Amino acid sequence: MKTINWKLRPFKKGDETGIINLDRRVFFEQTSDRFFNEYWAWEFIKNPDGEATIWLADDHGEIVGHYAVIPRLWKIEENLHMGSIVVDVMTDERYRFQGMFAALGKTSLSDSGGKGILFSYGFPVRKDVMPGHLKVGWKHIFDIPVLVYPQNFIPVILYYLKNQTLSLIFGLVLNLLWVGYRKIKEGIDKIIVKKKTSYLIYEINQFSKDFDLLWQRASSQFPIIASRTQQYLNWRYIDHPYHQYQVLASYIEKELVGYIVFRKENILGLKCGVIVDLLVDPDHFDALDLLIFSVKTQFKSDMEIALTASMISKPNPYYDLLIKHGFILSPKKFGFITHKNIEEILVFNYNNLYNQAGWLLTWGDTDVI
């Protein structure tokens, strides 16, 4: 049996360089923009819901394992409770099969529970990490679908078939069929939009105080929803170190009634338009029709975009509205897992977290897009 030389310890200031170096080795396939101090400080220190709880595996001064628990405020059963998203769980490949993954998880989550973080959640991308999560006590709750609105089938089919000639043939046929369907659908959409002329759409570059009021009204639609206050939205979308987001806001008689966040992103080698987050006042739900239509129109003008995508939990009215707008279910989905960080939660019924119908989850609730 290989000698275990590493020890667990909490993060201390100055560990950033070692953590980022481990990041580069483990997540080598990810964009290099995230492997810098500016991004690290933004995600783990400047989060308005609180600094991350981070535990490390240290082998004589070298950081070889990492587990981060980032606080995130949630509305559950009409009250606010502190949860957390777990990100960047990683172990150096030289230290695999030494129990490091489980040791880091148990220690980090227990420490978080002691700090009043009632539960954690995550979106594990790599299937090989799931057994380790389950061993620590995580539960796979459900999968979150990805809806897509195709614009050009050729690069999509090429990704799966790896044959340019066949992809071109099938892609052209599907493009023709889809264009016919889309023209009919867009004709209906335009009729719908004309009926919503009382809503004004503006592109904004800062979230103002009226987004706090919108959050209070809009959160009533969902039993379980993460906080979307002015402070959080500015941190998440305006202050991001390298992602560039666009935000459209809907108003009626100067009252904010909804917003949608979107950006362009390369996914699986495809240039995509991505709907990252959306929220609307339930008394003005039809404003979301106009917001989604506006985003589709913007992306349609870019011929390089293969499709528009939205990761969104179901069942919920936003999912249904995207389907109404011509989005279709893709083969891609994301697992969603949760962990109970303290033995007995008295402030809400933890079993409610297992009810898929209660959640609103979008790409904005992850740290990926």
In summary, what is this structure?
Helices cover 33% and strands 30% of the residues. It is of the alpha+beta class and 369 residues long.
What is the CATH topology of the largest domain? Aminopeptidase
Which class of secondary structure composition applies to the elements? alpha+beta
Fourth-level CATH superfamily of the largest domain: Gcn5-related N-acetyltransferase (GNAT)
Task: Give, in spatial order, the strands making up the sheet with the most strands.
Answer: 5-13-6-12-11-10-9-7
Let me know the average pLDDT.
Answer: 90
Tell me about the largest β-sheet.
Answer: 8 strands, mixed
| Beta-strand content estimate | 25-35%
Oligomer: single chain
| Helix-residue proportion | 25-40%
Number of domains as seen in the coordinates: 2
Q: Give the low-confidence spans.
A: none
The coarse overall form would be: globular
Work out the helix count.
10
* Count of strand segments: 13
